[in-house]
Amino acid sequence: MTTTLEPSVQAVSALPAPTVVRTARRRPRPPVRVVVATSFITLLVLLVLVPGFFATSDPYATNIAASLKPPSPEHWFGTDRLGRDIWSRIAYGARYSVLIGLAATSLSVVLGTLIGMAAGLSGAFITGRTGRTMDEGLTRSLDVISAFPAILLAMLVVTFTGPGVWNIAVAIGIAGIPLYARIVRAQTFVVTRADYVAHAAVYGRSRWAVLREHVLPNALTAVPVLAAIDIGTSILAVSGLSFLGLGPQPPIPEWGVMLAEARDVLRVAWWAGLFPGIFITGSVIAFTVLGRWLQVRLDGRNA
């Protein structure tokens, strides 16, 4: 005996089985300004690593006959008063400006993080009067350093140590320590008193395990953002101190040194100061844009 299905049932049964389509979650594309900033930073990295690949001539070679030549196919950014190719000097100068700024930022990050972490942990892991004394001592030391503007403090340090490549890196690095120390201290203070940290300790986790698994990852979230922005600020500080004669000395093609050498000829050779200034300004803007974008990404991930 056979049964005949209704026409509507036959039509439904004839349809193909539904398929589950999984749509891949696309990551949002970075804004155009972030792409431009990243491209500029990539150029800086390449100039630091292989400046000879981009330079068109010897950055130290003088040619008085070609003094103050405007931009041309032979000299893309023109020449300075000694006939040196400005583009080549900018390419080789990136190694000084960027590396000094990176070294100064690294010093600030390392020392500031250690001091801030020690101050923040003193109240949680070191109980009693000893912990309070340690926290107050470190905090007061930061207050003394913060009493001076960062650039003035860097100038004072260079005045005692003398001008030079590494001296200026140390000076700028010391001036940036309070910023990282205060932020890390505040974050550590909050994290160590969070409920999940207390629960981890109750369940038998050692202090080192709690510090490694819970405190450090959450207390240092703001450090990469600050470091990215601070690299550009440090490059600006390096150029400013070099402009005042407190950094690398001529004939080193540091960007601030190039600005100082161009200030007497700007009326007749605008290009001598314009292009080094563009690279200084571009570095500050690029690292700031990258840092702000990292902040937005981290805030969205933690939301």
Automatic annotation (TrEMBL):
Pfam families in the cross-refs: BPD_transp_1
GO CC annotation terms, alphabetical: plasma membrane
Record membrane topology: Multi-pass membrane protein
SUPFAM superfamilies: MetI-like
Location in or out of the cell: Cell membrane
Keywords carried by this UniProt record: Cell membrane, Membrane, Transmembrane, Transmembrane helix, Transport
Residue stretches spanning the membrane: 32-54, 98-126, 138-158, 164-183, 215-248, 268-291
Biological process, per Gene Ontology: transmembrane transport
Top-level lineage group: Bacteria
Cited InterPro entries: BP-dependent_transpt_permease, MetI-like, MetI-like_sf
Primary localization class, coarse: membrane
Residues annotated as domain ABC transmembrane type-1: 94-291
Protein family membership: Belongs to the binding-protein-dependent transport system permease family.
The protein's name: ABC transporter permease
Organism: Microbacterium rhizomatis
